[in-house]
Write a structure and sequence with these properties.
There is one protein chain. It contains 16 helices and 13 strands. The protein folds into three domains: 97 residues, no CATH class; 96 residues, Ribonuclease H-like superfamily/Ribonuclease H (Nucleotidyltransferase, domain 5, 2-Layer Sandwich), CATH 3.30.420; 124 residues. Helices cover 44% and strands 21% of the residues. It is α+β, with helices and mostly antiparallel strands. The site of zinc ion has 8 residues, from loops.
């Protein structure tokens, strides 16, 4: 064992002085003692206070070269302030007495966790995975800025199921920037209410459009908290519903068809659902033969093709007229799945036409989905929703600084 005075500048903790540094090939111990010339001030009211006791404590610190395990041993001061009548413990600045680590080591771990799976930290530093996760969360909670709720104009709300246990959570995203604003357990009313309760009346007033899943349960909460905002149903979800209806027609026609007619329907599922302009020539020929043999599927296909026109409208009023015609046409076909879809469209007309006005798409949500699966993998779990929220928000921020 040997002392290393040249390493002293690395351990500059104001108010404490280096007494000794001992380094072996596997561990380094840095001993600090309190500078006795200095007065002690109460951390709460900054009055001069008395020290009752000095207690030896230890904190992990950054590696020194190849020596991975570095411990700082120091005198923590326990005192009493007669001014504000409170007890306190003083640690050297730069040491987190609660975490038993230097803040610079915690920052280092936080920076590593940004880019590497948390369970790999122990390959490089003598700390466990749970400790790495705890420190990462503590530093992120302190450093990440809160979401900007003042300039919200469009928000997207969705429910997500994560992991094998199908745990549900409610996600709120800024529809323009993609910033994640809120993450809460469950997909119930309360999961979304807690978001609106964070907003001031002025911030709520700014919100012009709210994109939600057609099947979700959030509509009533939005009506209650943001009655002026327009609810927008996602375009791709509506198109998906229409495709499901078309496919139901195909299946029912298949069941009714005789052996000869089945030949025409066979293998046409994707040709029917794909956009006409994306079909190859032989696929178009197949469809043409099918339509000659089956009037119902021909009608269904024409309806599907026509529905795409809806999204090209610029004025909601004209789009609404188009919908009237389309709904009538769908009803005239007598095809049940399409009639059911048309009735749903009629019922949700306002939310569908709101898309024409606001053009809200779930593209930002798709990006979020990709991010979250990557983060869940890197964080090796998602049991802690607060941590998950911080990890997602971190993606859009630069790494925390190294102290
Ligand atoms: Zn005090």
């Amino acid at each position: 064992m040997s002392s290393h005075p040249s390493l002293r500048p690395l351990y500059d903790f104001s108010g404490w002085v280096v007494q000794q540094i001992q380094v072996t090939p596997t561990i380094a111990v840095v001993k600090l003692h309190r500078d006795k010339r200095l007065n002690v001030y109460c951390p709460h009211c900054i009055r001069k206070a008395s020290v009752n006791k000095k207690v030896m404590q230890s904190a992990y610190d950054l590696p020194i070269g190849p020596v991975n395990l570095v411990q700082v041993l120091y005198e923590a001061l326990q005192g009493y302030c007669s001014g504000c009548k409170s007890y306190f413990t003083l640690h050297p600045p730069g040491i987190d007495g609660y975490a038993h680590a230097t803040k610079r080591l915690m920052h280092y771990v936080c920076r590593l966790c940004r880019f590497m799976p948390v369970n790999k930290i122990q390959v490089f530093l003598p700390i466990s995975t749970s400790t790495a996760r705890r420190w990462d969360k503590r530093i992120l909670a302190k450093y990440l800025p809160d979401p900007d709720l003042d300039k919200l104009r469009v928000i997207l709300i969705d429910e997500k199921s994560i992991g094998a246990g199908h745990q549900y959570m409610t996600v709120v995203i800024n529809g323009e920037t993609g910033e994640v604003l809120h993450l809460a357990e469950g997909k119930k009313k309360t999961s979304l209410e807690s978001f609106f309760q964070k907003l001031t009346p002025k911030q709520i007033k700014n919100i012009k459009a709210i994109g939600i899943d057609r099947a979700g349960a959030y509509k009533s909460v939005i009506r209650q908290y943001a009655p002026k905002a327009q609810i927008v149903f996602d375009k791709f979800h509506i198109v998906g519903n229409l495709n499901t209806a078309i496919d139901e027609v195909r299946r029912s026609e298949w069941r009714k068809a005789n052996k000869e007619d089945k030949q025409f329907i066979k293998g046409q599922r994707f040709n029917l659902l794909r956009n006409g302009d994306k079909l190859k020539e032989h696929q178009c020929d197949d469809l043409a033969r099918l339509f000659e043999a089956n009037e119902a599927l021909f009608q269904a296909y024409l309806l599907k093709d026509a529905f795409a026109t809806l999204w090209t409208y610029v004025r909601p009023k004209w789009a609404s007229k188009f919908l009237d015609n389309w709904i009538e046409w769908a009803k005239e076909t007598g095809l049940r799945p399409l009639i059911k879809f048309a009735k749903g469209v009629d019922r949700d007309r306002n939310e569908i036409l709101a898309w024409i006005k606001h053009r809200v798409t779930s593209a930002k949500l798709e990006a979020f989905n990709a991010t979250i699966s990557r983060i869940v993998k890197r964080a090796c779990g998602y049991r802690d929703l607060d941590y998950l929220y911080l990890k997602i928000r971190q993606e859009a921020s630069p790494p925390v600084p190294q102290l």
